[in-house]
Amino acid sequence: MRRKLIILALTLLAAPRLTAAADKTTAVYTSISGGYAPLWVAKEAKLFEKYNLDAGVVYMRGTVTTSAALVTGEIDFIHAGASTYIPYAANGGDVVLLGCLSNIVLDYVVLSHPSIKSVQELRGKTVGISRPGDQPYYYMREVLKRSGVPVKDVRFVQTGQQPERMEALRRGVVPATILNTPNNLALEKEGYRRLVDIEQLKVPALVRCLITTRKILATKPMIVDNMARAWLHSVRYIQTHKKEAMAIIGKYTRNSDAEQLEDAWKSLTYKTDLPPYVSSTKLQEQIQMLAEDQPEIKKLEASKMIESGVLKKLDASGWIKKLFQS
C-alpha cells in the first residue's frame, strides 16, 4: 500500500499542472501606424498569455463605433489617442485613460509640395486631413495658429487615411497634408518638403493611451490589471527585441522598408514616458484646445477621464521598475 501511495504521489508530481482558463478580452487599435505596436507585439510575442489573457486584437475606427463597442461589452480596451474621446466624455460617456505613453503630439509632420517653403505660404490653399474632428485636424489647426496663420485662411479637405493622404499629395489633389511618421520618409525622398515636425512644438495631447471604462474597471479588475501588465511588458519587449519588434510592425503595417520600420521602433523606444501616467495638466490643456470650436466640452474636468490606480499599484509594488530594468 505504501509503495502504491509513493507511486501515486510521483505520478501527480510529474503530471502537467492545470491552470485556470485564460480570461477572454478584446482590445482595439484605431490606426495602422507604428505607435499602436504595443497591442500587436503583445499578441505576436504571446505576452497576453503570460498574463492569463485570451485577447483578441481588432482594428476599428471611429469614436462612435469604438465607444458603442465599449458600452455593449463587445470590447474592453482601446489603444488610441484621447482627443476623439474627449467630446464623448464631456457628454457623459463612460471612458477613462489608464495610461498614455506620451503627453504631447508625437511623430506627426506637415508635408508640402516642394514649391511651398513655409506654413505661412499655406494661406489660400488646401490641406489634406483624414476628416474633421480627428486628431490630424486638431494638430494641423494648432500648427497654423502657432505659425500666425488664421485657420479660416486654409481649407481642410477630407482625403482619407494616411495612404490616401500620401497619394493626394503625390497627385496634386492637395499641396500639403499631415502625416504620421514614418510615412513621410518616402515622400521626402521624392522631393516633398517637411514644413513642420509637430513634435518640436510640444502640443499637448494624450497619445498611445490604454482606454477602458469605469464599468469594466469595477466588473473586471483582474483583466484590467493583467492588460496593463501585458501592455507595459510589450513596450519593454519592443525596447529590447528590436529585430522582432520591427518584423511585427512590418507585418501589421504591411511595410518592408527597413528605414521606416526602424523609425517606428525608435519612436516607441526613445519617446515613451515611463511610468506612462496621464498628465492631468496636459489633458486639461488639450480639452481647452478642442473646446475652441466645441465650446460644450470646456466644462469637462480632466480628472473625470483619468484612472491612475492600476498603474500606481504596479509602480508602488516595484513591478514597473523591475520590468524596465530587466
Descriptive overview:
The protein contains 15 helices and ten strands. With 326 residues, the protein is of the alpha/beta class. It folds into two domains: 207 residues, D-Maltodextrin-Binding Protein, domain 2 (3-Layer(aba) Sandwich); 94 residues, D-Maltodextrin-Binding Protein, domain 2 (3-Layer(aba) Sandwich). The strands form two sheets. A five-stranded mixed beta sheet has the order 2-1-3-10-4. Strands 7-6-8-5-9 form a five-stranded mixed beta sheet, with helices on both faces. Strand 6, helix 6 and strand 7 form a beta-alpha-beta unit. The longest helix is centred in the last third of the chain and has 20 residues. It is globular, with a radius of gyration of 22 Å.
